Amino acid sequence: MGTHESHQAAPALQKPPMPEVASHLTIGFNSTNRQLEEEAQRPDQGDVLIVSRRLAAVFVPRSDQASILASHVPLLVHRASLARPALPATRLVNLSKGAEARLCAALHLPRVTFVGLFEDAPNATPLIDFVRERVAPIEVPWLKAVSLGLYMPVEIKAIETTAPAELMPAKRRQERSDVEKIAAAIAPEKRQQQ
User: Fold this and answer.
1) For a FRET experiment, which of 4, 51, 148, 164 has its CA 20 to 30 Å from that of 181?
2) CA distance 66 to 60
3) Between vectors from CA 178 to CA 177 and to CA 179, what angle results, nearest 5°?
4) What pLDDT tens digit does each residue of the chain (194 aa) get?
């Protein structure tokens, strides 16, 4: 007979404890977006800078669903960076498609669309320096013109062509000739009936 110990179930796998850096991250759309909005709304007040936490980088895994969610993020990152011109700009880092699966596994979450990294994250200085060396700050030229109050006339770019309007693609010409053939075949039958 076997021992009682062999019939005991294996202990359930437990999630590892959260690392120290977890409190220095924004994970997901809502928390990252909220942080960027707060940063964009807090400008410098003269020489006194309002002390608050600031994102150094926002990581966005490439995904079909996240493209709609992320369309406003470059402008928001730029606005947050403009609010603190004396500090290095927040960088927006696009990650490859496979990065989302690895982030989900590492964070024990089913889906991860955004990860923000705060400036004061422990042991993150090499990563932040690497990102700042390799990823350029977001530039939004039209926003600068708007903030200066410059009038920008409408520019309509059109291409003039000398091709006649009656030339059609081959498929439409074929459809037209098929219709003409059917009409020609029906016409003699109608004459005979009259």
Assistant:
1) 164
2) 8
3) 90
4) 444 554 555 556 676 677 777 788 898 889 999 999 988 885 555 544 454 788 999 998 877 665 677 788 888 999 888 888 888 999 999 888 888 888 888 888 888 888 999 988 888 889 999 999 999 998 887 777 777 777 778 888 887 777 665 555 655 666 667 667 777 777 665 555 55
Q: How much is the pTM? A: 0.64
- Fill in the amino acid letter for 118: F
Spatial contact of 61 and 106, defined as CB atoms under 8 Å apart: no
DSSP structure string for 74-127: HHHHHHHHHT-TTSPPPEEEEEPTHHHHHHHHHHT-S----EEEETT-TT-HHH
Q: Please name which of 142, 18, 122, 38 lies closest in space to residue 83, comparing C-alpha atoms.
A: 38
Q: Quote the CA–CA distance of 55 and 138 in Å, as a whole number.
A: 14
